[in-house]
Amino acid sequence: MRPFDYRRAEDARSAVAALDERPDAMYLGGGTNLVDLMRLGVASPEMLVDVTRISSSAIEESADGGLLIGAGVRNSDLACDPLVRLRHPMLAESVLAGASGQIRNMATVGGNLLQRTRCSYFQDISKPCNKRQPGSGCPAREGDHRNLAIIGHSSDCVATHPSDMAVALAALGAIVHVEGRRGSRTVPMPGLHRLPGDEPDRDTVLEAGDLITAVEVPALSFATRSHYRKVRDRASFAFAVVSVAAALDVADGVVRDCRIALGGVAHVPWRAEIAEEALRGSAATATEFTRAADLELAQARPLRDNGFKVPLARNVLVRTLIDLTEAS
Amino acid sequence: MKSEPNTPGQEVPVSAPVMVDLRLSVNRDSYPITVDTRETLLDTLRERLDLTGAKKGCDHGQCGACTVLVDGRRMKACLALTVTLDDREITTVEGLADGDTPHPLQAAFIENDAFQCGYCTPGQLCSAVGMLAEASAGWPSSVTADVTGEPRLDDEEIRERMSGNLCRCGAYVNIVAAIGQVAR
Ligand SMILES: Cc1cc2nc3c(=O)[nH]c(=O)nc-3n(C[C@H](O)[C@H](O)[C@H](O)COP(=O)(O)OP(=O)(O)OC[C@H]3O[C@@H](n4cnc5c(N)ncnc54)[C@H](O)[C@@H]3O)c2cc1C
Ligand code: SF4
Ligand code: FES
Ligand code: FES
């Protein structure tokens, strides 16, 4: 690992100023992804600016019933927060479905959103990878891609975004608060992450030096009936093969409204807008749920070894919607 | 990993280690120490403080052998940079017992034969201490049927909550029994 300077930021402004001064620096959250990538030689910052102590480790209720979650809130504190569990159960469930108890105690909300892909070539510096080294090629396209994307990939990169939490936040239309060189702004999800296109080295729309300060979850009354369902290769402590975050508003057997996002299928947490549109006003039945899922997944372009994810995503989505209907 | 003193006239190497003085509090003892910013808590404990209870299994956050408690919360020492922890209270497996009296979880591990080679055991113990505190604070888990309710710590809950600790010997059945005995 390359030696680096360490600085602890006291507030967002000084953290942003530190990165402005030192473009070779990176922010440090819980370090559960970054420290690992530094050890693997994938990341080699010359300075770490620790942002875990800046005053953003609280969850506050906004006037309209939404939640403002500080970027420094640890994943476990988010998942056990009583308001999150009550109003947005799928958000608590998505966090609890990720990593392990120890890692959730360390990981922050900001770091979780910006964790890098688990594509094995990305993590192995002896291999080419367009995301790590632009222009070097994408061995995953012809190589090991069983767990990579089926939607929205490009000839340059077929990676998936690994975060569970981001899938629930994308479904909830969370708003990411960012402090940058030119002041503060907001980025609505799912628009934080971007498809790979011909710039797979860019995971998100954020610019160099941008600091995530908070994530706002807007009020959504029917999110009290929501669920995160994750399929993985073992019962626990594994990344998603496919996952679904869904909230459903059903009255008299008809879908009034819904929010759906898929994980493990794309370079971004995939908001299923086509399925949502197809469901609004339709009967809350397995037949309609399947029709909506198929419409969404018609865009899928699976690779040689991950075609199984298409029916898997459809079945998991349909099952989740049936469960939410029966729970009503 | 001490930095070499620079001889006059010699060029300073571009990537000289960055050393930081701090005070580390471990098992209620305070250690003044100079650390390389790259040092993880696991390496500091094992290589510098001679506290070899926490084990290095994978060094990537995947096995749990390095689990320690930081301000009472379980964490993976292989992913924590020591330089970030100067004002925190760290507890390792060496700090669990009360003098000669083993911690109830240590006693239960012995009684239930909850290990074979013992390599994962310090991590299992620290993880279980942290996990029981999380459960009594009412934290739900991924197998809690209703995240809005109060979880009950049955075997399925224990298995899920301990999934960050692998045991190469496969002593899981007895580990779950030992923890269950203390939890109930
Ligand atoms: C063994 C293992 C298993 C895992 N399993 C899962 C899983 O099943 N599901 C899942 O979702 N995740 C999983 N994870 C990933 C884990 O959730 C992430 O590592 C964690 O959320 C990252 O948060 P952090 O605070 O530690 O980020 P860090 O590692 O500190 O940072 C990650 C990135 O974000 C940047 N950053 C951090 N904070 C900010 C900020 N406020 N503003 C701007 N940039 C910032 C850093 O510069 C870095 O680039 C697993 C990790 C491990 C090690
Ligand atoms: S899929 Fe993306 S991350 Fe993986 S090797 Fe190809 S370019 Fe790299
Ligand atoms: S050594 Fe830390 S988790 Fe394996
Ligand atoms: S007892 Fe040998 S690894 Fe667990």
From TrEMBL, chain A:
It comes from Streptosporangium subroseum. It comes from the Bacteria. Keywords: Oxidoreductase. This is Xanthine dehydrogenase YagS FAD-binding subunit. The keyword Oxidoreductase applies. SMART domains: CO_deh_flav_C. Residues 1-222 form the FAD-binding PCMH-type domain. Coiled coil: none annotated.
From TrEMBL, chain B:
InterPro entries: 2Fe-2S-bd, 2Fe-2S-bd_dom_sf, 2Fe-2S_ferredoxin-like_sf, 2Fe-2S_ferredoxin-type, 2Fe2S_fd_BS, Aldehyde_Oxdr_Iron-Sulfur, Beta-grasp_dom_sf. GO terms for molecular function: 2 iron, 2 sulfur cluster binding; metal ion binding; oxidoreductase activity, acting on the aldehyde or oxo group of donors. Keywords: 2Fe-2S, Iron, Iron-sulfur, Metal-binding, Oxidoreductase. Pathway: Alkaloid degradation; nicotine degradation. Residues 20-96 form the 2Fe-2S ferredoxin-type domain. It holds the Pfam family Fer2. This is Xanthine dehydrogenase YagT iron-sulfur-binding subunit. It comes from Streptosporangium subroseum.
